[in-house]
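Methods — Computational structure assignment.
A single polypeptide chain was analysed. Its primary sequence is given first, followed by the predicted tertiary structure written as structure tokens.
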Amino acid sequence: MKKATLLALLIFAVQYVFSQKEESENYRVILKDDWKMQSAVTDTSMGKSISQSGFQTANWYKVTVPTTVIAGLLANKVYDFDPFYGQNFEKLTDPRLDKPWWFRKEFTLPESENGKNVVLKLHGINYKANVWLNGVLIADSTQIIGPFRIIELDITKQVKYKGANVLAVEVKRPFNPQKRGGDLAIDYADWIHYPPDFNNGIINNVELKTFRKVGVEYPLVTTKFDLPSLTVAHLQVDAMAINYTDKPEDAIVKGKINGTVNFEQKVHLMPHEKKQITFAPAKFPQLNIKNPPIWWPWEYGKPEMSRIELSVIHNNELSNEIAENFGIREITSVLFDNNKSRKFIVNGKPIMLRGAAWSPDIFERRSKLREEQELRLVRDMNMNIVRSEGKLEDDGFYDLCDKYGLLVMSGWMCCGAWQYPEKWDAAKRSVALASDSSVIYWLRNKPSMLTWLNGSDMVPRDKTVEADWLAIEADLKWPNPTVGSAAENISKVSGSTGVKMAGPYDWVPPSYWEADTSKYGGTWSFATEISPGPSIPPYESLIKFIPKDSISNKSLDWLYHCGTGNFANTNKFDSALYARYGKPSSIMDYLAKAQIQNYEGHRAMMEAYGLKKYHTATGVVQWMLSNPWPSLIWHTYDYYLYPAGTYFGMKKSMEPLHVMYSYKSNSVDIINSFLEKFTGLKVKADVYNLDGRLKYAKEVATEVAGDGTKECFLLPKINGLSSAYFLRLELKDAAGSVKSINWYWLSNKNDELNWKKSTWYYTPESSFADYTALQTMPATTLSVHHATSKTEGTTSHKITITNTGKSVAFFVHLRALKEKDQDDILPVIFEDNYLSLAPGETRTIECSYENRYAGNGTPYILVSGMNLDTAHSKIGENAGFEK
């Protein structure tokens, strides 16, 4: 057996059971409910006593696992305040949080499991633990250590087949994961303040499984096509056979794919042996599948799922049976541009990747509903990739990504203990290697997985660590590309990463993205994390976490909900806002203008990367997608799932068939993210002054290649423009259907960047565009009405808006309230929002939501805009204008 396999399998027993498994003869249960939790300071009893029947837990907290300590205390209402409101987070102080905590669970086995081998699997302990069962210490904190390890414990000798069993887990928090030499635990860097328990607890499933002496685990189905043809998929099936006994055992491993393709082989296992078994298509020709159902990212086709079933027959009895979903797909990557850029290829087709970075709840509170809500928003924004950095979710998260055709980039954390392997002692090195083994086993068969990053801000400084990780990943047959880090590094072990992490992370103007083509964060290479900075939530969200009298960009509560370090305020964003749009007259004026600046900044970033795709630009990941708590920076939607300016700028920019304006070339362009070629297209550009007069109009017929871009025409110099003016773009397909409408507000004075003063996190401006005239543009009137349709589960409103005035209706915002003067319905999907309409233009926008989020009142549509004459506008029933 290879060295790396020994590292993966023998340093620590690490195995994983997938959530999609369906078992028949053998027993599997997730120990989720009816746990008790208590501090080892409050209850000083010893593990031997705690882990036996009859132990009194009347004063313990009832919790559901997974949970962290803080999450458990919040669920039990130990704190009588919202920890996210104002600076209440600082009140989460308790000297017990630095000490161990007990998690206790009683369980019984069905009579049918009598005499079988019983295995306890811990899918995530943060950070270390002593594990007791029925009065016996079965593993101590030198064995149970590391949140990303999935550890198997054979408890056959300690378990009771009749009567109650008691499991007690004494969990000890990590220390200094944010520092060199600290524990290899969950870390957050400069995103947020650290949770006071440092996520101490059981952060993933605790599972029981039974076997008849021999088991099979970790299915992997790898696909190879005869590219460019996709008519035959050559599938290889790998798995691990395990002997749970002290004697040699013979068994038969059987497999089935999609209910029709069958295969099997005999296996001989030595005592307690774990053996990799392979079904290769050359030896098993039935694994060469003709006309297979193919898993595609959503833009390219359907994410078709397939099913693998494996079973083990021992002495003519079924020992265990597992089944899980997988995808028939092949992902590779290539380096180009002197190895500075990496292009990812799915099923032989290159793909331009545009998405954002995921962050879970700060207290690691897992919710299937919340995951579904958030990933539906990701898909609604037209993103095709989600990145996670040192934050591994549960199986439900990856199942949803598989379902929605979203790709996932994941890897180790930056900046703290994970980034400095040269500081690790032998024990931490073992944790790191075992963690890598666990993660690869866990994620390798998930079709949504695009790549694994062995480093974040840099490749491992100890090259022997990277070499060992790569060896483990190779031996465990990781089927996707592996990249040394998320930064523009050249590793002595793995070579060039072909990606970059060159900022910015704070405000830069829309012109930035196309202006830089070789050094910073502009449109070249694959930007794994990048952002134009703050995303200021609307007032409706702000009042949920900042006291009304503190809603000011100078208040301590405001600053507390920024990031840390260089990102502890919104100063750069605010300075640009004041210079470009004029000093706000009120906090409401500030928030309205902030949505405009959020929209244009984020839209321009994604448009620029789409426009320059494959011309060295191959991917861009917005930092971040979501916040782990209510925040003023780095999100596309806020903690309360409110989709504001950033969200709709993102959604607009990543329309699959999209018309756009280039700030650099002054051109009108098309981005096509489908594989299909489009002919017979019509592109129209209209330029309006602030008074609503049409100053320029042009329409051309054109076409665009599949996954291509097309420059349609250049805008000429136009005389007589107001200091700020509007550009309206429209794209129709060959049938005359409108596929994209995109409005820009432009200035006769450009944003100028001071490249000489660039830093790693932003480039300052030496001169700002001037949009101050937008404050005094003529008012216009709207006619608004909506039609509602309702099913048992969902409601849809078709909102028709007509600009009945003579000037452009600018940045019209639609909201769906639970009823008049009540909260917004969230989550909600708007087809489009923050609209602009030309004089006489009509748009119909669909809004939809699940009825369970709407309350029991009559839904109310609220409309606002930058220059609305609400007194003379007309609005239908159950709707109104926001003052």
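Note: Confidence is low (pLDDT under 50) at residues 1-25.
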